Amino acid sequence: MTDSPSTAASSRRLDPVAILAALAVVAAYARAIWFTPPERVQGFAQKILYVHAPAAWVAFLAFGLTALAGAGWLFLKDERLDRFAESSAEVGVVFTTAVLVTGPLWGRPIWGTWWTWDARLTLTLFLWFVYVGYLVLRGAIDGRESRARASAVLGILGALLIPFIHLSVYLFRTLHPMPVVARPEGPTMPPVMLKTFFLCFFAFTLLYVALVRARVAYAADRDAVEDAARG
Amino acid sequence: MPDNAIYYRLAYAATLLLYAGYALSLAWRRARLARRRAGHA
């Protein structure tokens, strides 16, 4: 199945979801910077949590949906699923990069080191490599169907790392902090910090939706232009 | 309380740059595609 090319006017129009996402992200940063107190023991470095944890959540969401869309493509051969998988993987790589940049910026003042080969950190780096590899693989295959098939398989296999990363703090001896919100006994954060935390989760999830919508629209236009060029 | 505000400022600046940079790269790619489409029309 193919989409008709979007018109030049529609590609110039600003997506309302993108406007909402931009406003939510600005609100989240403003609340985290100016309206949330620093934590007593960790100081201001604790505020890195508000951009680090939501980025990790979005990365897992993005790669999980990449795998689902890839599996869907294997059954249905619908090009829209492949375009969604490609877009979600690319946005997921952006958010995983944010995780890998903000983690060491927290680790340096709190652990005294930028990086340690701890299970969660190492597996997250592997996840980043797998999906960068996914994007490189897509660029290396010309045929649309073979590209979709190969990347669907890699997308599904890559997502198998997600449960290991999530459970790594329980499965392995690790320096990484245990969850402070998603725990059976309830969150350990004060309400003012918890509100900021949830606002950041909401804002970055909305940003993911906006970026994927834009990326899918680009992929549909690109395929239409390629089809037109082939005649 | 430890004086480590520089790290969180760097983290916030880096993430903002990353997300804004990616959004700009998408806009740039769409503009390039529109020029290519105009070339075919």
Short structural description:
The complex is a heterodimer of chains A (231) and B (41). Chain A has 231 residues and is mainly α. Chain A contains 8 helices and no strands.
Please characterize this protein's 3D structure:
The complex is a heterodimer of chains A (231) and B (41). Chain A is mainly α and 231 residues long. Chain A has 8 helices and no strands. Chain A has one domain. Helices cover 75% and strands 0% of the residues of chain A. The model of chain B has no long low-confidence stretch (mean pLDDT 92). The chains are: A mainly alpha (231), B mainly alpha (41).
Helix and strand topology:
The complex is a heterodimer of chains A (231) and B (41).
Chain A (H helix, E strand, L loop, with lengths): L7 H5 L3 H19 L14 H28 L2 H33 L7 H22 L3 H16 L1 H11 L19 H40 L1
Chain B lengths: L4 H36 L1
Keywords for this structure?
heterodimer, A: 231 residues, mainly alpha, 8 helices, 75% helix, globular, B: 41 residues, 1 helix, 0% strand
Q: Describe the biggest sheet of chain B?
A: none
Low-confidence regions of chain A: 1-9
Radius of gyration of chain A from CA coordinates: 19 Å
Instruction: Decide which structural class fits the backbone of chain B.
Output: mainly alpha
Q: How many separate domains make up the residues of chain A?
A: 1
Helical fraction of chain B equals over 70%
Backbone shape of chain A: globular
Q: For this entry, what is the oligomeric state of its chains?
A: heterodimer
| Class inferred from helices and paired strands of chain A | mainly alpha
> Given the structure, what is the number of helices of chain B?
1
Coarse morphology of chain B: rod-shaped
Share of β-strand residues of chain B: under 5%
| Number of E-state strands of chain B | 0
What is the arithmetic mean of pLDDT of chain B? Answer: 92
Radius of gyration of chain B: 18 Å
The interface involving the most residues is between: A-B, 42 and 25 residues
